[in-house]
């Protein structure tokens, strides 16, 4: 067992203090004299997406906790910035971190923010390892990588599944917020379901995209979408918006609900309780995946935060992991450009989600899983049902 694995396993057991005596069989160069590096973490620090930002912060910090607060052997100075909820606030966050001389950037929750900071990141020639927002419009980027997904993949995974599960006389109502990511989800869903299939012929109902909805924000749009008496609802919400949407939907519709997994991730389940029962989602991660990396990650995360880790935390943990490997490859004095080139050389990642690797568009080639919200004692949980597809 090498030193890094010992750190991970012992930390998960709460015994990291013993690791100082461990030797190393993988570190080719001494790390004690390596200079500190600055990493910029961009997340929303308020509003309806704050809980996702907190998970991203927690995931990245957990990796540092398990690796002596180092990446690639270098002590890390983790600088944080508030992405806000617009392209303008996101750009200001990036520019502030760049002025402080960061080696790399990570985080970003909102797809509109990611689109808005694209040119700033590319012109600065500093790598951004995004751990959530990943619209398909990010084409031909050189310095932007993502450890999460591309949004159309969640739609594709569920489109393929529902095409085979829905009866011939079934009907799908598609309800989406009018934002940057929704067209990606819809396109992927229609592509795999069959664009001309009469079961999905009804127009998409687009709703208000506010991250902080009120108790009647979606009511009229839900009524409109349900007018043709659909068999199932396919939707795409996250955070506080997911909570309000499902509460308002359940007042008028008791049938099956399908969505990308963000609908039931994290604090959403705590707030929805019985309203979430039976909802099926597609996601690139489930906390009950049975692999060594996930057992280490999930155990350590639960020990530190007393909650089950989310896909947001996992993707941020992996962002730290790929940065760790890339910085290690650059040697003792990394530059942003060297780190960016090294990111393309790290190969397969041994992740809590399972093995994955970057594809040509700098996003993961990975498995997608079907989950269902079930009761686990007094707690609602996303239970792994089966594997849906490998996409990317």
UniProtKB/TrEMBL annotation:
Coiled-coil stretches noted in the UniProt entry, renumbered to this chain: none
Gene3D superfamilies attached to this UniProt entry: 3.40.50.2300
Domain annotation Leucine-binding protein: ranges: 36-378
InterPro entries assigned: BCAA_transport (IPR051010), Leu-bd (IPR028081), Peripla_BP_I (IPR028082)
Signal peptide positions on this chain: 1-21
Organism: Micromonospora jinlongensis
Keywords of the record: Signal
PROSITE patterns: PROKAR_LIPOPROTEIN (PS51257)
Family statement: Belongs to the leucine-binding protein family.
Lineage: Bacteria, Bacillati, Actinomycetota, Actinomycetes, Micromonosporales
Name of one Pfam family that matches: Peripla_BP_6
Protein name according to UniProt: Branched-chain amino acid transport system substrate-binding protein
